[in-house]
Amino acid sequence: MSKRIVLLPGDGIGVEVVREAKKIIDYLSERYGMEIRTGTYLAGGASLENCGEPVKDEVVEACKKSDAVLLGAVGGPRWDDFPADKRPEKALLRLRKELGLYNNLRPVTVFDSLKDASPLRPEVVDGVDLLVVRELTGGLYFGQPKGISEENGTEVGVDTMRYSVPEIERIAVAAFEAARGRRKKVTSVDKANILASSQLWRKTVASIAGNYPDVTLENMLVDNCAMQLIRNPSQFDVILTENMFGDILSDEAAMLTGSIGMLPSASLGDGPGMYEPVHGSAPDIAGQDIANPLATLASVALMFRYSLNHEQAARDIESAISKVLSDGYNCKDMSRHARHVLSTSEMGDKILETIKTTGDSK
Ligand code: NAD
After folding, report:
1. Is 223 a catalytic residue?
2. How far is residue 31 from each of residues 270, 283, 345, measured CA to CA in Å?
3. Is 251 marked active-site?
4. pTM score, two decimals?
5. Minimum CA distance residue for ligand 1 atom 17
6. Domains, in order of start, for the chain
7. Distance CA 306, CA 89 (A)
8. Per-residue pLDDT at 360
9. What is the pLDDT of residue 362?
10. Exposed, middle or buried, 327 (CB in 10 Å: 0-12/13-18/19+)?
């Protein structure tokens, strides 16, 4: 059955890392007879230059009709002073909204060969392999009322943390399903000792947990979670949390690895998912063929797992990344932890060659 993938390289190093991703997608498509068709479109600054819009309607339509979207990164100093609705980031926000992407997944894995790259001691990050499941379309970032107004002669800013039961249920189901394929533990993070929305969150998550007797549920307050991530991060398997807590905790968790160029993400909804590296367009190194493509390649692995339902292809990529790193290869950003430093395109080729020689071709 054929599959359609929209590639949105975007700006800066986005173009370079998505080029490497395409090599891997094309190869795995052929290897497993998946008939994947890719289409490349403009987004972000590149689209602004071309047509004055951060993303064209027809590109959003193509994304909606696809099976998955792979985004490089958008933005750069050239567009920093553009008005809010003409900024490259608007492309991302529009796509997240129109694709209904409520489920943001950020896996954080500390590879054995890169324990020294973490700002924490190697023995603290040893064995860290966790997944942050963040609710992406509710909570403080979207709740109404919201805004700055004047009250009694002074300005007042208001945001509303609001969650309904169905919003909590669907993200809880996503977390429990993910835990089933992992170590079967969900840590639900809230502030139920103070916040009403968290009390509802805790009650609703507990009711969903009843459908997953094989998965252990633990509740943790967000302040404690921030501390535990530094004290003993390997205790976590799946961290389930609301939008703003997830925003903060996922960045904290990401830093356990000490390597921004290597972190993937997936944003899922009821339609096509969007996959992107956590890093931005890195204008300081764009066009030099030195960007690390591993975050994007790991995002492609997530795409095979969650949108294309091909676990073997996902594992082929993940095992290849792990092997290449343990063989001492990495890019310039991680050169202190590598015996061999590769360019962007050399790393793409190295991963491809490793998949070809070590993957399971069944
Ligand atoms: P950035 O992630 O682009 O770069 C931060 C630092 O990390 C830079 O020194 C960069 O060289 C380095 N870096 C990032 N990715 C790397 C990689 N793959 N390999 C090697 N080094 C890498 O963040 P920034 O500098 O704050 O933002 C630059 C632009 O990207 C801005 O316009 C910002 O708005 C945009 N941005 C976009 C996204 C996105 O598209 N999702 C996310 C974050 C930032």
Report:
1. yes
2. 28, 35, 21
3. yes
4. 0.91
5. 261
6. 1-101+270-362 (3.40.718.10), 119-257 (3.40.718.10)
7. 25
8. 54
9. 45
10. middle
